[in-house]
Amino acid sequence: MSAPLIETRALRVSIGERTVIDRLDLSLAAGERLAILGRNGAGKSTLLSTLAGLRQPAGGAVLLDGEDAHLMPPRETALRRAWLGQFHNDPFGSTVLETVLTGRHPHLGRWDWETPNDAKLACSALAAVGLDGMEKRQIHTLSGGERQRLAIATLLVQAAPLYLLDEPLSHLDLNHQMAVLELFAATARDCGAGVIMVLHDPALAHRFCDRALLIQGDGQTQCGTVDEILTAPRLSELYGYQLRQIDDAGRRCFIPE
Amino acid sequence: MPTRQRALLILLTLCLLAVGSFGMALMAGSLRVPPGEVLGALFGQGQDSAEIVLQLRLPRAIAAFACGGLLALAGALMQVLLRNPLADPYVLGISGGAGVGAMFALMLGLPVLAVDSLAFAGALGAMFIVFGLAHGDGSWTQTRLLLTGVIVAAGCGALVALMLAIADENRLRGMLFWLMGDLGQSTQWWPALLALGVGLALAMPFARELNLLARGQMQAQALGVAVGRLRWVIYLLASLATAASVTTAGSIGFVGLVVPHLVRLAAGNDQRLLLPASALAGGSLLVLADTAARTLIAPQQLPVGVLTALIGVPVFLFLLSRQPK
What we know:
- The structure holds 2 protein chains of 2 kinds.
- In chain A, the strands form 3 sheets. Chain A has a 6-stranded mixed sheet, with helices on both faces. A 4-stranded antiparallel sheet of chain A has the order 2-1-4-5, with helices on one face.
- Chain A is of the alpha/beta class.
- In chain A, 33% of the residues lie in helices and 27% in strands.
- Chain A starts with 5 loop residues before the first strand and ends with a strand.
- By secondary structure, chain B is mainly α.
- Chain B has a domain at 1-65 and 253-325.
- Helices cover 74% and strands 0% of the residues of chain B.
- Chain B is built from 14 helices and no strands.
- Chain B has helices at 4-27, 35-42, 50-81, 94-107, 112-135, 142-166, 172-180, 190-203, 207-213, 217-222, 227-249, 255-267, 271-295, 304-321.
- At the A-B interface, helix 2 and helix 3 of A face helix 9 and helix 10 of B.
């Protein structure tokens, strides 16, 4: 076993005065997929950006490949993990291709310009999310779902071994939700990438992840395999709403009562 | 996305435009100097007109170019720093601070050197006040920076208005010209030119990181940009560039807001091209505007800030209207 892609040691995350995560020990190996679930405002996004090294932990440490993420130069961090944020807004115009190519930034030297090879990578990433042929489009002409897929393509060209995805399915229609989840499942399986994603649908989390982390919002967390964590009693308590669980051929779905 | 070759081609074209604008500036005036004599003067063949070209017109044209370039560069940087297309070099109160210093010196009838020094001191003062206040709690978000800057600018505006109100009648014209921007008052051309060279040289290594910053701080940081340090550097650079320009020629409006947008419309928003292209285009525009300002109704001179707007507005509207939706 190689060193875990990411590891937290007694991690504490606070929003203002409120501690949302306390003493979290977590580690993710290559090829593993972890889902983060919790109520709105429970601290899922804050945890994810802390894992990405974009936010200083209130206590404990985040290790990327065995090194403290917060002491690492940002460029080095960018080669070890890719982070998908929730919000995209651009005050200035830009084409789809230019936007995807920004993902190559950590791989380029200070004076380098993007090479044809980078453009090739960008085009295949666009094809992977079904945006091929749109290279010349202005991004403000894209729909919300297309913007989301563009952001995912940008992540793919960053080619980091660890993906931290904050609600990767937002704005996506059903077929693209499945396509994106299949895409990351394949990346984990074939390229040994680690994937941590914030999801709102426990059924999809059960189907596309190996483990799940439930965030209660008061510092408490539960982590384990999806079979053991994603159950009706636990999720009913997490969301404060009664759920019924239906198991079907190894898949699980939850119906609100 | 422009390739490196295309970027160089565009910059070369803009260099030619700059040379052309210098040619106009050196030839035009109450004494028209033909192109041959201008070249002769530049290469040291002394004729009668050589003194006018070398002593009067060339320094003024260089000062105009440097100021225009500084303003356009500062405008482009501020727009990225604040992620706001409406930002210009003056939005954070730098020109307001310089204005307070310069008005004070002009009101008391101090010599030119004191006007320049006090203007520069005022610009630096405003810069540190805005930075100190906006940085106070360590967050220094765009909104906080913008609000602080706008408030400081408003305060400076009030002080300027106050000094205009109590100033002596016969000093009022000089003060108004300073406020509208005027290259006739510039005494030295080299500090502005030096500032333009240094500013551009310091900004260019960060150009690709600026592309990312324009898309959002978190995104930029996630892609490996040291955002905190970069914003610091950009704030200082843009502020000092603005200070150098207003000290040399007063607060010339419009160039810093519109030239970056002109270049963006024509050549895209890649900062690696946008920054040097803006500097060249802004410099050329100001040289042309200043030439027009001193020749249109000669011997009387117009404030160049009025001319930059009169030239820039139609060009900008034309470019905007021909953009595909």
